[in-house]
Amino acid sequence: MAEWKKNLLLVCLSLLIAFPLLEIAFRILSGIPIFRVENFRQTNVVHVNFGGMADYDPVLGWVLKPNRRFEETIGGKRIILSTLDHGVRRNHDEEAGLRTGGVLVVGSSFAAGSEVSDEDAFAALLETLVGKPVVNGSNGGFGTDQIALRAEQLLPIVKPEVLILDIASGNITIASFAVAGRPKPYFTVEGGALRLHNSPVPRNVPDNDQFDTLKNLLGYSLVIDRLMASYLPYYWYLSERRSLVRVNSDGAEVTCLLLDRIKRKAAETKTRILLSTQYGSSEIESWKKPTKDIAVVQDCARKLGIPVVDEFSIMKALYEHDRDKYAAQFVRSTGNVLGHKSREGNLAVAQRLAAAMAEGLPPNEQPAAGTAKTSETGAAGLASDERPGDGENLIRSESLERYSSRIAKVLPVSAWMDKHRTFRIVPAGRLSQHYISIVIDKLDLSPLTFSMEVHADTSSKLILQMVDAEGNGVYGTFDLERHASVPFRIGEGQGIRTGMERLDAGWSKIWISVSPQRDTITAYIEFVAHDGGTNFPAGNQSFYVRNVQLERGNRPSAYNPRP
Fold first, then answer.
1. Of 294 and 41, which is predicted with more confidence?
2. Half-sphere exposure (CA, 13 Å, Cβ side) for 394?
3. Would you state the pLDDT for residue 92?
């Protein structure tokens, strides 16, 4: 026998012996019974595609069926997906019909909220944070071309103040397909201009994937399912009678031209645009940085004056330093597969978007020096009764260094010309959140206001928070450079609000208010990293504070020092 044939036979025998052992080991590590017979591919196809929920649409190819309610069980948990007119996803049961104004979200499966119930999609969570209607017009499987067409379809109907376009790298790739599971519209670039094809979109479903039978067979292997899900997910998870047909088109170039087109259309109704980019777990874990396509599209957006909210650096740092917290950002499916974002992951996305919406105020909407800017919740939980602070400072703010900890230090600053003491707050320790905390007990249940004067040093963003023993309260994000604040409700926090006032010499007065439901509350002053994250290694970050006060009432009063 020839030598090369012997080597080939040896390799084949080695694989035949090693593969079953690898499969057994992988199942044990994943908590899957060794002898369980399950087609992991088919299980996850259901999770990705929301099978049977889409209708044919001549403009988009498909869209969620309107005014329907679907139920599905994922990982033993019941998932509810319900829709309104035009196939938009409902945020909560009280939402009776399509609302106008507010925010319009358009994207693919991450924005649609695959694998979570209505109220846990990031659009629904964003609505609770910004106190405005948020319409979720997203659909699973969309390319950026379909996302753009969907935005153009809904803009004149919803008439939003803000349009959020949420994309992932795979969505850019799909923009170069004429068929992505089923026929879809697509664009080519001719002479620098876009030309639309497949309009109206053909109804016919393409022939079976010639490898579908083989994929179904290989899907019984957890090892193969995980490998294919990591490197070829869009091909691997296409269900039966679905295929991919690629055209000679650059998805990133098409997306850039569509962003320009959408911006011009949005300008007609004075709608602001944000571009959000999300990533799957396999991308966060295996990539060192976002792909070239993502970088090109983000660069195009910035050149067009469209703010970009990108999560990659935050999620990468979380993956490298806190695997449990990272995994909690995703829904965990069969075989410990990390799928779409969980409620926790969607809440983090919503918080970043809410902060970006506040930061994106045009210059003519920025308050002048010496004027106050207050952000409040909607009708639910709004502290509508004015109750100025009583001026009794409940914390020892002239001795603020007593609240130093291993994760943040409070350093007194010599400033003989100041009437009251000034402190420099700096992060400490390794990768973690960095904050100081102040616990106050034996309170009555009247509203409380936590206020201080702040000056940026190397940090210009921070968070104030008040929370009671039951986990209810408020936190506000503050951007000193842009003079923007956003309030967020924690749990069942009531009467929440935030406020800012510009002072002289670069100082700002900031505050948060809440009506506590328990007699013990903890107040926090927390760092925000330059990229918007709160979990980072200590470095060159700091800001100055003075005149820190916690008092009864829902508006701050004049500072009352307490040694």
1. 294
2. 22
3. 86
Alpha-carbon gap, residue 356 to 166, rounded angstroms: 14
> Going by DSSP bridges, is the β-strand pair 494-502/508-515 parallel, antiparallel, or unpaired?
antiparallel
What's the rounded Cα separation, in Å, for the pair 354 and 166?
14
Q: Quote the strand ranges of 75-158, DSSP E.
A: 77-82, 103-107, 134-136
> How many helices (H) does the chain have, and how many strands (E)?
15, 27
Helix extents (H) in 159-250:
169-174, 212-218, 222-231, 233-236
- SS3 (DSSP) at 356: helix
103-107/134-136 β-pairing: parallel
User: Bridge-partner residues for 214, per DSSP?
Assistant: none
Beta-carbon contacts of residue 416 (< 8 Å; ≥ 6 apart): none
pTM of the model: 0.62
Q: Which residue bears the tokens 């230090």?
A: 409
Region 139-156 average pLDDT: 95
Residue with tokens 């591919």: 41
- How long a stretch of residues is the chain? 563
92 is written with which tokens? 């909560």
Confidence of residue 368 (pLDDT cuts 50, 70, 90): very low
Phi/psi of residue 310, nearest 5 degrees: -115, 135
Query: What would the pLDDT profile of 89-115 be if each residue is shown by its tens digit?
Result: 999 888 888 999 899 999 999 999 988
Neighbouring residues of 502: CB distance < 8 A, sequence distance ≥ 6 = 367, 368, 369, 370, 371, 483, 508
Biggest CA-to-CA distance, the chain: 96
Q: Which of 529, 528, 509, 523 is nearest to 551 (CA)?
A: 523
**Whether the Cβ atoms of residue 132 and residue 103 lie closer than 8 Å to each other:** yes
Model pLDDT, residue 48: 43
pLDDT of res. 52: 64
Q: How far is CA 83 from CA 45, 47, 113, 135, in A?
A: 21, 18, 12, 11
User: Buried (b) or exposed (e) across 397-422, using 16+ Cβ within 10 A?
Assistant: bbebeebbeebbbbeeeeeeeeeebb
Structure tokens belonging to residue 375: 């952000």
Which of left, alpha, beta for 220 (phi over 0: left; psi -120 to 50: alpha)? alpha
* Residue 512 contacts residue 449 (beta carbons within 8 Å): yes
**Separation of alpha carbons 102 and 474, rounded Å:** 22
Interatomic CA distance for residues 343 and 500, integer angstroms: 30
Mean pLDDT (the chain) is 82
CB-based contacts of 518, cutoff 8 Å, min separation 6: 445, 468, 469, 470, 472
pLDDT at residue 371 greater than cutoff 50: no
Residue 250: which residues within 8 A CB-CB, separation 6 or more? 176, 189
- Spatial separation of the C-alpha atoms in residues 462 and 478, rounded to whole Å: 5
Candidates 481, 430, 421, 485; CA nearest to 457 is 481
What stretch of H or E contains 261? helix 251-268
Closest-CA residue to 452 (of 519, 514, 499): 499
Is residue 415's pLDDT more than 80?
no
